[in-house]
Design goal:
alpha/beta; 252 residues; Udp-n-acetylmuramoylalanyl-d-glutamate--2,6- Diaminopimelate Ligase, Chain: A, domain 1; elongated; five-stranded mixed beta sheet
Length: 252
C-alpha cells in the first residue's frame, strides 16, 4: 500500500501541473482514504465509472476528464449523484487534463503517434499559450487508410470519420486528441500529411476537401484512452499497486 499523497505528488511533478495553464483543476479533486492499494483508471469522470471502481474495490480513481473546472462548484443534481459513489466508498479522484495531453512520453498525443511509429516528435497545436499536441515523421510513406486502421486497433474502436482528401500515402502526421478540430488550419500550414484528432466539427469535411487535408477523427473519448493507460502501467510498476482500466464506451 502507498500513501495517497505520494501518488498525487509524483503525478503532479511528472506532468508539470503547476506550469500548465488549464481550465481544469488538475491533481487531487476528491480526497478519499489515505492508503492506496488499488487504483482504477478511466477517461472521464462519471457515476458509471465510480460505481465500477467501487465494485472493483479501488481506493483511487485517475481520469483525464475530471469533475471540477474553473467555474464555481455546486454539488447539486447530477453532480451530487456522481459524487455519491466516491464518498460512499471513500475513494480519491485525481484528474489530469492538458498536462496529460501534452506530456512527451505518457501524453495522449505522443502515445497516438508512437502507436503508428512516428519519430522526431515536435510540439504542435497552440491552445491558449499551451502547445498540447505533437507532429512527427513516419519512417516511410504509408497509406492513410492503413494508418487509420492501426489507430482504430490501438484505440479499440472504429473511428468517427476519415476525410481522405490529401495524398493517398503520407509520411508526416500531427495529433491533437479530443476536440482538436480547431487546429486544421495549423495542420494545413505545416503541410501535414494526416491530421489526427478526436472530433469532426461540421465545417471539417469541406475545409479538408478544399485544402487537400487528410483528417482522422477517432472519437473524443477513444482518442484519449492512451494517456491514462500509460499512467496505469507506470504507477503499477513504480508503486507496486493493483490497477484496473475501466472502459465506459463512448464513441463520441
Amino acid at each position: 500500500m502507498v500513501f495517497r499523497e505520494a501518488i498525487t505528488y509524483f503525478l503532479d511533478e511528472l506532468l508539470h501541473v503547476s506550469k500548465v495553464h488549464d481550465a481544469a483543476q488538475n491533481g487531487l479533486q476528491v480526497e478519499g482514504r489515505q492508503m492506496v492499494k488499488k487504483i482504477a483508471f478511466g477517461v472521464s469522470a462519471s457515476e458509471q465509472l465510480f460505481l465500477a471502481a467501487a465494485k472493483a474495490q479501488a481506493d483511487m480513481v485517475i481520469v483525464h476528464h475530471g469533475l471540477f473546472w474553473n467555474e464555481g462548484i455546486r454539488v447539486t443534481g447530477p453532480m451530487k449523484k456522481r459524487l455519491t459513489p466516491l464518498f460512499a466508498a471513500d475513494i480519491s479522484l485525481l484528474a489530469y487534463h492538458l498536462p496529460l495531453d501534452k506530456h512527451p512520453v505518457h501524453g495522449n498525443n505522443a502515445r497516438l503517434l508512437h502507436a503508428i511509429g512516428a519519430k522526431n516528435l515536435a510540439p504542435f497545436g497552440a491552445y491558449k499559450g499551451e502547445l498540447i499536441g505533437f507532429s512527427g515523421k513516419l519512417p516511410r510513406p504509408q497509406p492513410v487508410r492503413e494508418i487509420a486502421a492501426k489507430l482504430e486497433a490501438f484505440c479499440g474502436a472504429p473511428s468517427l470519420a476519415l476525410f481522405n482528401f490529401g495524398n493517398e500515402k503520407v509520411d508526416s502526421v500531427a495529433a491533437v486528441s479530443g476536440g482538436g478540430g480547431e487546429f486544421m488550419a495549423e495542420a494545413v500550414a505545416a503541410s501535414t500529411g494526416l491530421f489526427i484528432t478526436g472530433e469532426a466539427p461540421e465545417p471539417a469535411q469541406e475545409y479538408c476537401r478544399e485544402s487537400g487535408l487528410n483528417y482522422l477523427a477517432l472519437g473524443h473519448y477513444n482518442s484519449e484512452k492512451a494517456g491514462v493507460q500509460s499512467l496505469q502501467e507506470l504507477l503499477k510498476k513504480k508503486f507496486a499497486v493493483e490497477t484496473v482500466f475501466i472502459d465506459c464506451p463512448n464513441r463520441f
